[in-house]
Design a protein that fits this description.
Blueprint lengths: L10 H11 L4 H8 L3 H15 L4 H11 L9 H10 L5 H24 L1
Helix pairs in contact: 1-3, 1-4, 2-3, 3-4, 5-6
Length: about 120
């Protein structure tokens, strides 16, 4: 059995795909990319068609499968994915998870100070 072909995606499509893989919403992606939410959704549909995906989540899964996205991105989501699968975690994933915890604590402290 041969591996599925790697579709050619534009830079914007890859940016939307990576953002979706990180769990970002279309609104957040749009703000980051300088687009409106509807434009990001259209890009997601277009890249999904290129990949043969039913939706953006399926597109992320397929992109990992064909090598468009690395399996481990060294972020908190990767850390949680490793834990869920019972896999050993990478140092970069552990560091991202620790950084997330620090940011969460700082946010809670800032909220308390404002109250």
């Amino acid at each position: 059995m041969t591996a599925p072909a790697r579709p050619v995606l534009t830079g914007m499509e890859l940016a939307v795909l990576r953002g979706a893989a990180e769990g970002q919403t279309y609104a957040v992606l749009g703000a980051r990319l300088g687009l409106n939410e509807k434009s990001v959704a259209k890009i997601a549909v277009r890249l999904g068609r290129k990949i043969g995906a039913r939706n953006i989540t399926h597109a992320v899964h397929l992109a990992h499968h064909v090598g468009l996205l690395p399996e481990c991105q060294g972020d908190r989501a990767s850390y949680l994915r490793h834990l869920k699968r019972g896999e050993p975690t990478h140092a970069v994933c552990r560091a991202a998870n620790a950084q997330h915890a620090v940011e969460q604590r700082a946010g809670r402290l800032a909220t308390k100070e404002l109250a």
